[in-house]
Write a structure and sequence with these properties.
Strand content of chain B: under 5%
Structural class of chain B: mainly alpha
Helix content of chain A: 40-55%
Strand order of the largest sheet of chain A: 12-11-10-13-14-16-15
Largest interface: A-B, 40 and 20 residues
Oligomer: heterodimer
Largest sheet of chain B: none
Number of strands of chain A: 16
Radius of gyration of chain B: 17 Å
Chain lengths: 481, 46
């Protein structure tokens, strides 16, 4: 039993025996019931935009986390959410995915306002991706709205956590993980100001969204509590007019911040022109992997080093749920777009398997480490054309790569072995090929046999071979390791 | 609300809201005036 959230004074989320619950405290129960009973909630759940949620008849049937025991009083509402297949966090998304989550947040805020509710916070942590689609998770973020309320209080949070990080990516080339792993609540205007050349501070969109807010903040050194009171309009129509235009302005800023004009990275062009295979060799690789998927039909696949996702799409076409990771945000972004267009069950994430994101947040317990989420979570692990990068760039021993694969899969692994004689291996080794003298097909097979049985293998080129591995019984490989 | 309302970002929202309030009231006034002129009857204002 673990507590997952605690900032919202209206309730908290926790996990118990693999199920996700949300405890809503009595003072917030009426707002929640009103929202869940609305046609908006029903429609958004049916469309998959809002996490599927049900109210438990008996809240006392659930085992509570230790820190919450004794807090369950009469009037408490207990909800159960359908879990997201693979939990994912904003620092693992591409800028396009963050923009999509921001769009969903703004659409929720607008639809809620029209239905008589207000979205009380606007953070990317309210959203997760289920496959390639964003899903709004925090049903407790909606409360009934005073019809005269003409300020959207989470506006600043929306700017800090969505718009500013996207501007930092778009204009200054920062990576989202660089920003969001270290700043839970996004960037402040002064942080963006420090990155920005002076002339740009006087140009849109910086002038109105960064420079003026920064100057206004400097003028508010006393920070009187009264200054932050919610403003009210004279009539409901006036309040709606103001809020609708405020959301439209936020949407325009978002669009502008996310219009990425980047040069494509070498990694994202790999499948078109950068790979070292002859045409026949690549076709053979594709045929071999497709045949393996057809023969063993894994239900879940982790594609490590997915690039633009050619093989993830192949796996998804055979009915597998795929989580696809790569360190290159451009490549992952292309996969996210193609997975969305093909309506494939693929969750693409920007994760460097050489340095996977660790646990973070308060007491390192808010966001689980990537490997803890992935461990023993997949029927098949796919690792194609990656081993040489881990050997050369990360200097990871061959046996530990296979050990990691064995920890991630519950059954199969499809792994491409690349020999140090390979031209691409030699190119990335940059003259240090002698360091990899011990990397041979026999060494690979010996290491693989510590944790796996070799089911099949096929030669793709004289220096590349794909293996289909089946994990040994858990006891056997633990003893071997 | 427990989220940080920001400082400058909150005040710029207040300024935008004030400008929009003026725009809304001006629009209402204009619509009312045009409505009166077109119909010639003040009761058609709404």
């Amino acid at each position: 039993v673990g507590l997952h959230s605690f900032r919202d004074p209206d309730g908290y989320v926790f996990e118990s025996q693999g199920r996700i619950f949300r405890c809503v405290l009595p003072h917030a129960a009426d707002d929640l019931r009103a929202f869940l009973g609305s046609s908006l909630a029903a429609q958004w759940m049916a469309e998959g935009k809002l996490v599927h949620t049900r109210i438990l008849q008996n809240p006392f049937e659930v085992e509570l986390p230790a820190e919450c025991q004794g807090r369950l009083t009469t009037g408490t509402v207990m909800l159960e959410h359908t879990p997201i297949v693979f939990r994912n966090y904003p620092y693992e998304w591409t800028p396009e995915m963050l923009c999509s989550a921001a769009t969903l947040t703004l659409e929720s805020a607008l639809a809620a306002m029209r239905a008589g509710f207000v979205l009380k916070d606007a953070t990317p942590y309210n959203v997760m991706f289920d496959g390639a689609k964003p899903v709004f998770l925090d049903v407790l973020s909606f409360r009934r709205r005073d019809p005269l309320e003409s300020i959207w209080q989470p506006y600043a949070q929306f700017m800090r956590t969505f718009v500013y990080p996207l501007m930092a990516c778009r204009y200054f080339g920062l990576r989202l993980d660089e920003i969001l792993l270290t700043h839970r609540d996004g960037l402040e205007p002064d942080r963006l100001l420090a990155l920005c050349p002076s002339y740009r501070l006087l140009l849109p969109p910086f002038l109105s969204s960064v420079t003026i807010p920064f100057l206004l903040a400097r003028g508010d050194r006393q920070g009187a509590a009264d200054a932050y009171r919610v403003r009210h309009a004279h009539e409901a129509g006036e309040a709606s007019f103001i809020l609708e235009r405020l959301f439209a302005r936020a949407m325009r800023l978002l669009r502008r911040a996310s219009t990425v004009r980047r040069r494509r990275t070498t990694t994202s062009q790999y499948m078109e022109s950068g790979h070292p295979y002859a045409p026949g060799e690549f076709a053979e690789k594709e045929r071999f992997v497709a045949a393996a998927f057809q023969r063993w039909s894994p239900k879940s696949v982790l594609d490590i080093g997915c690039n633009t996702g050619r093989f993830s799409l192949l796996a998804a076409r055979t009915g597998a749920q795929v989580v696809a990771i790569d360190h290159d945000a451009d490549a992952v972004s292309e996969l996210w777009k193609s997975a969305g267009e093909a309506n494939s069950d693929i969750l693409p994430l920007v994760v460097d398997i050489g340095r996977p994101p660790g646990a973070c947040g308060w007491q390192n317990s808010e966001c689980t480490a990537f490997l803890d989420r992935a461990r023993a979570g997949f029927e098949c692990v796919l690792m194609l054309a990656l081993i040489h990068h881990l050997l050369v760039n990360e200097r990871v021993p061959l046996a530990t790569i296979l050990q990691l694969i064995a920890e991630l899969t519950t059954g199969l692994a499809i792994v491409e072995y690349i020999d140090p004689g390979d031209s691409h291996f030699q190119r990335i080794a940059r003259g240090r090929i002698a360091l990899h003298r011990d990397v041979t097909p026999k060494a690979f097979e010996d290491a693989a046999c510590l944790w796996f049985h070799i089911l099949d293998s096929g030669e793709i080129s004289p220096t590349r071979r794909i293996y289909v591995l089946q994990k040994k019984e858990t006891e056997t490989w633990r003893a071997a390791s | 609300v427990y989220t940080d309302p920001g400082s400058g970002l909150f005040f710029i929202q207040v300024i935008i809201a004030a400008v929009l309030t003026v725009a809304y009231r001006f629009r209402r006034l204009l619509a009312a005036r045009l409505g009166i002129r077109r119909s010639g009857n003040p009761s058609c204002e709404s």
